[in-house]
Structures are given as structure tokens and as C-alpha cells.
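Any chance you could type out some protein's one-letter sequence along with its C-alpha cells so I can compare the two?
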Amino acid sequence: MADNKSGGFFQRLKQGLAKTRKSFVQNIEQLFTGKAISPETFDDLEEILIGADLGPAFTQELIEEMKGRAKRHELAVADTLKQLLKDSMNKILQACEVPLIIPKDQVFTIMVVGVNGTGKTTTIGKLASYYKSQGRSVLIAAADTFRAAAIEQLEIWSRRVDVPIIKQKMGADPSAVVFDAIRSAKARETNVVIIDTAGRLHTKTNLMEELKKVRRIMGRELPGAPHETLLVLDATTGQNALVQAKIFNREIGVTGLALTKLDGTSKGGIIVRIAKEFQIPIRYIGVGEHLDDLKPFISREFVDALFE
């Protein structure tokens, strides 16, 4: 996707990251502007970085680099520090900037996972709209059969973006829904199948076993499926998002991330920590409720929006 910094999304991204910028970038600017660098400065900086959920590993590396530069008198102005911080963040995030490539000549399945409340259903609706805008044929599968609200919400989204939905009644076997969806996609020659899954508390082993069963059924009906296991994380949950990434990745293997609600948090820095600790591709970021508020992740755009 072309760089859209000149478009409306970059402005919405800047607005969405305002809380993070205020609690993070502005604090750093105040820390260094017009002050001599001292050991206490680095202690204060460490507190700011950890507070922004950037994580201990990133924080330690950055501060060691800064101490080295300070000894060489290379941190005379605050702008030098900001550029070092931007470069460090870019380096980590660029490694996870891996767009999802979807072939046009096959059924491509996206299994969407995550705990309830992360914006999973909304993300599915936005993804369906995004792929359809690219000229793809899309089908949604309502395989979270444990919540009537989840099925109803997906039905609303399917009507809103005008894509078909495969569903069964509440309490049905999720694997049966997935089976029907893949069969239907094959018959219709649908390109993209987006599958919702249950999102009850991630600590419950039975949920993970259900997800593993869904994966097995998908692989049996369509070799190579699921082609993408997309974990939706709520940026406002900070450390909880990190825990969820760890558990889902360990239990079922996550191939991509969608980070939502960046507009509602002061801890958008969690994206850096997740990128550094897991190296899972960040596919999409969301900064609002509108259909076009979910976009493919572009690392430099994210960092520029945070610092501008």
C-alpha cells in the first residue's frame, strides 16, 4: 500500500496517538530541554520509557546507547535524543512491518483470535470492508457460537459492508461453522474468508483446545489453512496485551497482529515492546470507530505520527 501520510489517516493517527505523545514525548522533551545530562536524567528517562510500556529490554538498550553518546558529547541538544529515540523505535518496528499478502487465485483464510472486548468483531468488519474495497470477494464466518451478541454483531457488519456471512445458532459447534464456511467459499470461489472465534478468558485451556480443533478442521478442508492467524490486541490494556500475545502465540501460533484502540490510550508504546519481544508481524493498527480507521501498519508513519 502506498504511503498515505498526505491523506486523512495520518492525521487521524496523529490525533489518535495524542495521549501517548503527551505522556511520553512531551515528558522527554521537558526532561532534556535546557538541562545538563546527569545520572539522574537517565533515571528519569528510564521511568518515562517504562511508564509508556516500551518495556525493560528496549529501555535498557536505549539508555546504554545514550550514555555512550553522552560520554562522546553527542547528546548536546534534545533533538539529538529525540532522533535517537525515533531511530531505535523505527529499527524495531520496521522488522515487524510485514504486510499481509493475499493471492487472488485461491481461497485465503484468516482466523481471527483474541479475548472478548479487544475489538475483534469490529476489526473483522473493517477488514471485510478493506478487502472488498480492493476488489476481493469476502465471506465472514461467525464461529464464536458461545455469544449470541457476537453472531448478531457480525450479521450487522455483513449487512453494512455487503458481504455474505456463514452462521449457525448459538451453541453450535464452532468447527461446523468453519466447515460450512470453507465449503461455501470453495463453491463460490470466494477469495478471502474471515473467521471469528470465541474469545473467553485466555487462561481457560478449553478455549485453546477449541481453537486448535478449529485449526485442524480448517487444515483438513483446505490444505494450508488457516493461512493467517490474526491476534487482535487492545492497546488500552497495556501489559495485558503483552500477556495475551504470549499465551496465544504459545498455544496456537500467531502469524500476525492487529492492534486496536490506539486512540484511547496513553500507552501506545506497548506496540514497541510487543514487536521487540515477539517479532510477530504487525499487520494492522486501528485508531477509531470508522470503517477506514483500520489500516495496514507502516512503522515510519507510526513513529512520525507519535513525534510530530
Summary: The radius of gyration is 21 Å. The longest strand covers residues 228-234. The beta strands are 108-113, 138-142, 165-166, 192-196, 228-234, 256-260, 282-286, 294-296. Confidence is low (pLDDT under 50) at residues 1-6.
